[in-house]
Amino acid sequence: MMDQLVWCGRIKNGSLTAPNETLASAYLKKAEEALETMQTITAHDWRITTAYYAMYFSLYAVLTRIGIRCENHACTILLMERLLSDYFTPAEARLVEKARGARVDAQYYVSREIPDLFCEELIRAAPRFLVKCTGIVDGMSEKVIGVLRGRLTEALREEE
């Protein structure tokens, strides 16, 4: 059975690119805009969606800083769990995955209710997650970027 990470490496729009601090900053700005929108709307479903995207764009900024292009949300979270475990706890990865599921439910299924308690947890967590990811992006050295890129390359090679 092919490992999930290998699958992620083979699907369309997933690749190593040049590390890009400018693009990482642009994704952090998108995360901030999602948070601003989250604060101005009252619709439950859209608050969940904007909170999730604030977290997703924050995480994607970290990957962009490293030079990882991954347009599949599940794969982005998998990279968070497997490659960035020195930066994120398993609980944070579970929260982002749960938020992803809630976003899908909120956007595509009118019959699926997302509990208010989880919605409120997500709304509280999203700004903290953005701050954490901003710190990671700002504090990442070229040496660390090289190590992370090497780990990913090696993990993909080992799984083939």
Annotation keywords:
two-stranded antiparallel sheet; mainly alpha; 2 strands; 160 residues; Four Helix Bundle (Hemerythrin (Met), subunit A)
CATH superfamily: Nucleotidyltransferases  domain 2
- The side-by-side strand order for the widest beta sheet comes to 1-2
Query: What is the N-to-C succession of helices and strands?
Result: HEHHEHHHH
> What structural class do helix, strand and pairing data support?
mainly alpha
Give the N-terminus to C-terminus distance in angstroms: 10 Å
Anisotropy-based shape:
globular
The CATH top-level class label: Mainly Alpha
**Biggest sheet, in brief?**
2 strands, antiparallel
What's the helical proportion of residues? over 70%
Q: Write down the domain tally.
A: 1
Number of helices: 7
Q: The CATH topology, please?
A: Four Helix Bundle (Hemerythrin (Met), subunit A)
Named CATH architecture: Up-down Bundle
Low-confidence stretches are none
Mean pLDDT, to the nearest integer, reads 88
Give structural notes.
By secondary structure, the chain is mainly alpha-helical. The longest helix is centred in the last third of the chain and has 24 residues, at 116-139. Helices cover 76% and strands 4% of the residues. Helix 2 packs antiparallel against helix 3 (44-66), helix 3 (44-66) packs across helix 5 (90-108) and helix 3 packs parallel to helix 6. It has a two-stranded antiparallel ribbon with strand order 1-2. The termini are close together.
Summarize the structure.
The chain has about 160 residues and is mainly α. The protein has helices at about 5-10, 20-40, 45-65, 75-80, 90-110, 115-140, 140-160; strands at about 15, 70.
